[in-house]
Design a protein that fits this description.
CATH architecture of the largest domain: 2-Layer Sandwich
CATH superfamily of the largest domain: Malate/L-lactate/L-sulpholactate dehydrogenase, NADPH binding domain
Number of helices: 11
Shape: globular
Largest sheet: 7 strands, mixed
Helix content: 40-55%
Number of strands: 11
Order of helices and strands: EHHHEEHEHEEEHEEHHEHHEH
Low-confidence stretches: none
């Protein structure tokens, strides 16, 4: 079923106010959830919202907490997220990185002690909308086996890269598992097979069955050993810069995934006197990418198409989850 974007946003905001979040923060937090569903990432939008409410109720997420700067060195700052709402902490951190970039050309915020940031791409779009190149990543609970092992010891550690462009930003938002846990849960809920193998079943056989992979907890890292190494390196850099927890220190219980470490980098091309060059260079590269036979999409193209349909026809929602969230908004 589909509902109007503003209706979705309003119900989510009402639920957060019922959960004790201040009105202005509830509106922003709800908008980030609603925008994720609007752009086709319901696994980190409406579908994840009930879990977020449960984590608030259990005191894992502190609805009133805001991030605090711990230390700074020029364009680099270390913040403590104080277990506040992950998407609000992440938005504030990218805002902070962009403020540093306006002064230094580049800015980096390393954020410790925070919660799940929901859709990581949100903060890439945030930077690109401001005309900046954005880079950010987070570590996660251990939910992917490193290459050569059968048990989960590394995270799927999402990585976001964003390049501003006048006719549609280029935003890459990817987990370092072949499919994120949220994406596989969505496939499993629909009863659909994955388009390619995404992990192993209990017997150690590669499979396209998302339910079997979720049961075995043996997600396949992208690029096999390459994705495994990249996930480990990103985890180390985030934990070291933020002085926070590394993946091996984070609970494996999805309902207790907290104390994450994240990095937000903003780069202001205009600081080099090249305002407008970024979009021109991206346009030329994109023209070459999609020219010729075959169907080629650039990172962000699918998001823009889904967003346009959602704003025209309504945001696609899971009826059962929508009913549950409506009930929470009504108290």
């Amino acid at each position: 079923m589909r509902v109007a974007f503003e209706t979705l946003h309003g119900v989510l905001a009402a639920s957060l106010r019922k959960a004790g979040m201040a009105e202005d923060r509830a509106g922003t937090c709800a908008r980030l959830f609603a925008e994720a569903s609007r752009d086709g990432v319901a696994s980190h939008g409406l579908n994840r919202f009930p879990r977020f409410l449960r984590m608030i109720a259990r005191g894992i997420v502190d609805v009133a907490a805001t991030p605090a700067r711990v230390t700074a060195a020029g364009a680099l700052e270390r913040w403590d997220g104080r277990r506040g709402p992950g998407n609000l902490n992440a938005r504030d951190a990218m805002d902070g990185a962009m403020a540093l970039a306006r002064s230094h050309g580049i800015g980096c915020i390393a954020l410790a002690n925070t919660n799940h940031w929901m859709r990581g791409g949100s903060y890439g779009w945030q930077a690109a909308d401001a005309g900046m190149i954005g880079v950010c990543w987070t570590n996660t609970q251990p939910n992917v086996p490193p290459w050569g092992a059968a048990d989960p010891r590394i995270g799927n550690n999402p990585l976001v890269l964003a390049v501003p462009r006048r006719d549609g930003h280029i935003v890459l938002d990817m987990a370092l598992s072949q499919f994120s846990v949220g994406a596989m849960a969505a496939y499993a809920a629909r009863g659909d097979a994955l388009p390619v193998a995404g992990g192993y079943d209990e017997g150690g056989t590669l499979t396209q069955d998302p339910a079997a992979i979720l049961a075995s907890r043996r997600l396949l890292p992208i690029g096999f050993w390459k994705g495994s190494g990249l996930a480990f390196a990103l985890d180390l850099i985030a934990a070291a810069l933020a002085a926070g927890q590394a993946t091996h220190q984070i609970s494996q219980d999805p309902e207790e995934e907290t104390g994450l470490s994240q990095v937000f980098i903003a780069i202001d091309p205009a600081s080099l006197g090249s305002d407008g060059d970024t979009s021109r260079i991206a346009d030329a590269a994109l023209e070459h990418l999609i020219a010729g036979p075959g169907t080629v999409r650039y990172p962000g193209a699918g998001t823009l198409a889904i967003r346009a349909r959602s704003l025209r026809d309504g945001v696609e929602v899971d009826p059962a989850i929508w009913t549950e969230v409506q009930a929470s908004a009504a108290g």
